């Protein structure tokens, strides 16, 4: 057994039933996200949906947005913008770190 897979947020470890239970939603909700192409789980050899922790996070956030009254289209857009913002923040943090290291190496700062 490869325990490193448990640390991989993209490893498809959860069945539809398990995913629904963890999120507190009904299984048809998850199937509807798959049918809409919003959250597309991998399939087991038997054809069953298998969700990763990352996909559960997306589905959970979509559920929150739906509960706030957003449509599927607006929820997808919000999710996309949140992802872009998170990536931009990570890039800024990396650039700040690189700048600090450069300043330290060059005696400025």
TrEMBL record:
Record InterPro entries: DNA-bd_dom_put_sf, MerR-type_HTH_dom, MerR_fam
Key words of the record: Coiled coil, DNA-binding
Domain HTH merR-type, residue spans: 13-81
One MF annotation (Gene Ontology) recorded for this entry: DNA-binding transcription factor activity
Domain of life according to the entry: Bacteria
PROSITE patterns given in the database record: HTH_MERR_2
Coiled coil region boundaries: 78-105
A Pfam family assignment: MerR_1
Protein name as annotated: Putative transcriptional regulator
Organism, as annotated: Saccharomonospora marina XMU15
